[in-house]
Amino acid sequence: MSDSQRESSLTSQMSPEGRTAAGVGASTAPSPARRAGRRGGEWRKRLEIALLTGPAIIVFLTFVIFPVIMAAYYGFYRWKGFGPPTDFVGLGNYLIIFKDSSFHEALMHNGFIVVLSLVIQGPAAVALALLLNQKMRGRSLIRVLIFVPYVISEVIVGTGWSLMLQTTGAVNDLLTKMGLAKNAVDWLSDPKIAIWSLMIIISWKYIGFAVILFLAGLQSIPEELFEAAAIDGASYWQMQRRITLPLLGPTIRIWAFLSIIGSLQLFDLVYIVWGQYVASTAGTSTMATYMVQNGRNAGNYGYGNAVAVVLFLISLAIALVYQRFVLRRDTEGALTEGKK
Amino acid sequence: MATATATLPTATRRKRTSLAAANPITYVIAFLFVGLCIGPVIYIILGGFRTNAQITADPSGFPSPFRLGNYSEVLSSSIFWRQVSNSLICGVFTTLGVVVLGVAASYVLARYKFSARGALYSLFAAGLMFPMTVAITPLYIMIKNLGLMNSLGGIILPQIAFALPTTIIILVPFLRAIPKELEEAASIDGASRLGFFFRMVIPLAVPGVVTVGILAFVASWNSYLLPLFILNNETSYTLPLGVQSYASQWSVDTARVLAFTSLSMIPALVFFSLFERRIVGGLTGAVKG
User: Fold this and answer.
1) ipTM of this model?
2) Which residue among A67, A143, A151 places its CB closest to the CB of B138?
3) Which conformational region is residue A192 in: left (phi greater than 0), alpha (psi within -120 to 50 degrees), or beta?
4) Whole-model pTM?
5) Distance between A1 CA and the closest CA of chain B, angstroms
6) Contact B187, B121 (CB under 8 A)
7) Residue B280 contacts A where some CB pair is shorter than 8 Å
8) Cβ–Cβ contact A102 with B under 8 A
9) Disulfide engineering: A78 pairs with which of A22, A87, B84, B173, CB 3.0-4.6 Å?
């Protein structure tokens, strides 16, 4: 004890030469200089930790964690957003949500969007990534261009597409010119068609991201595997099926996870294209647009928060199930790699 | 044996050549796909050069003649520039805040050993599970109580907070990869841990910082939900809200809406084409990591 104290006082007075000596020792044993200065050093270290992480923790707790907790709390009240909530209704808001047929519709639309996003974008993006993963002219330019829809904002995408999909808009005009449609299609307000229009817009906006992700995944597959397979006489399709797809698996599963969560929380595009009132009649409402419409827009803040909680719990449950059963292999690999 | 060695080079070469010479069909499909991706964007840009009469007569046609009137009208309107500057202020300060807070916290999580480290990392990582959609209503009430309604501060602070999880998840492995030897060398030369942080870590972390900075900026530039709740008057609107209100205000003047829309996407497009590699690398890295 006294020994270490003496040492610590020594290190504080050390000349540069003394430090060098301590440093040389550090490379063999885990830095005795630091261990020697433990007492003062420990406080200093704590201060540094507090100083460096403090602001981030405060901002994060204040603007992310606290509101989420408050959402759970407000969800138990009937509350118009003025003053503290007093009208405690217990699970009343939740009962209304589960009985409300327009929430059921929104939930079904979300489910539809989740499934169709996976079914449409997944295979198409894998095929396109395989196609583009060749040494071809203008490859880097192609990559930039297919990523453009992902980078421009939802508002621009929504505004642009809603103009193009008007009955007298560019899409109908183009289809007529090409002789593909006789009558103008009512893309946006026919409930049978509107959700497919939404799927077109979603696929257009997000498929570039999937392709770029899969291209990155394809590039991490070692070339030697294909060479070895070629020596063994494997055909192109056999190689894709036996080598590419399994090795691309982790990337595909992560992409699917992101796509599912994104589809469950879809808000911007629907709200911009269909506005706050038309979404439910056009059959494109989602849980998030339902939340904003019945919560903030209607002034029922308690109810809106209850919807947010339901939305969160559904996403969380799906995320946990997905991680437990689909991502498990991948994360296991990652964990063992991390330990090594 | 002899045959095996003989077939080896040809087999490899055959495979290489099949990679090298992408066949014409590949080009056709790639061309079609690219066309589908940028067609609507080009439609928006070209539409701004047309008149409403042209658009009504031939919705999917080309501008003939080219009219600069819509663009010059938007560019000379003060509200457009007001919204551009609002978006810029939000983007710049969100980025600065995310970078400063994110680098500091990631440095501690990457290089300090202390008992709460794992818990702290999990806390930030859990943030990924809380999207803004869930927190938006209480966030709105909180911002209102803080008196930050209609102010850009009410946008910037939550945006920093919600960008922190991604930032930390990208930066921690990045900072951990800085070799231990460098830190020891620095401490031999008399640098404290903080000195090491400012003199060595920050310069070395620049590539990672640029990536997270760009992600934060683009997210802020495009963000819609938060401004929709917080900003209620047109002078405090950011561009996404501006585009939307412009589109409903001038709904009969399609050409002008298209001009406004295409001008508002220019900054994101320029930014993206300049830093394309970093954005793509950052996104794929974040997803894989």
Assistant:
1) 0.81
2) A67
3) alpha
4) 0.80
5) 22
6) no
7) yes
8) no
9) A87
- How many CA atoms are closer than 13 Å to the CA of B24, on its beta-carbon side? 0
Question: Is B268 within 8 Å of A151 when comparing Cβ atoms?
Answer: yes
The pair of structure tokens assigned to B137 is 């209503």
Question: What residues contact B12, with CB distance under 8 A and at least 6 apart?
Answer: A227, A230, A231
Measure the CA–CA gap between B101 and A56, rounded to whole angstroms: 5
Q: Kindly state the tokens that stand for B127.
A: 């943030």
Distances (CA, A) of B28 to A86, A130, B34: 65, 15, 10
Q: Which residue has the higher pLDDT, B40 or A31?
A: B40
d(Cα A320, Cα A300) in Å, to the nearest integer? 30
Print burial letters for B176-193: b (CB count within 10 Å at least 16), e (below 16): eebeeeebbebbbeebeb
Contacts of A20 in chain B (CB under 8 A): 188
Digit-by-digit pLDDT tens for chain A (340 residues) are 444 443 343 333 333 433 333 333 334 444 444 444 556 677 888 888 888 888 899 999 988 888 888 888 888 888 887 777 777 887 888 988 888 888 998 999 999 999 999 999 999 999 888 888 877 777 778 888 888 888 888 889 998 898 888 877 788 888 888 877 777 778 887 888 888 999 999 999 999 888 888 888 888 788 888 888 888 888 888 888 888 888 888 888 888 888 998 899 898 889 888 876 676 677 888 888 888 888 888 888 888 889 999 998 998 888 888 878 877 766 554 443 333 3
Q: Which of A248, A305, A265, A286 is nearest to A76 (CA)?
A: A305
Chain B residue with CA closest to A309: the answer is B134
**C-beta separation of A290 from A308 below 8 A:** no
At B114, list the tokens: 């202390």
d(CA B67, CA A242): 55
**Three-state DSSP state, B234:** helix
Interchain pair B29, A131: CB under 8 A: yes
Buried b (16+ CB within 10 A) or exposed e, B200-221: bbeebbeebbebbbbbbbbbbb
Q: How many helices (H) and strands (E) does chain A have?
A: 18, 2
Q: What distance, in Å, lies between the first and last C-alpha atoms of chain B?
A: 44
> Which pLDDT belongs to residue A199?
93
Beta-strand (E) ranges in chain A? 77-78, 87-88
For B116-138, the pLDDT digits (tens) are 888 888 888 888 777 888 888 88
- How distant, in Å, are the alpha carbons of A65, A263, A331, B99, B107 from that of B166? 15, 19, 18, 11, 15
Q: What is the pLDDT of residue A39?
A: 61
CB interface of B with A, residues 162-221, below 8 Å: 162, 164-165, 168, 184-185, 187-188, 190, 193-194, 197, 218, 221
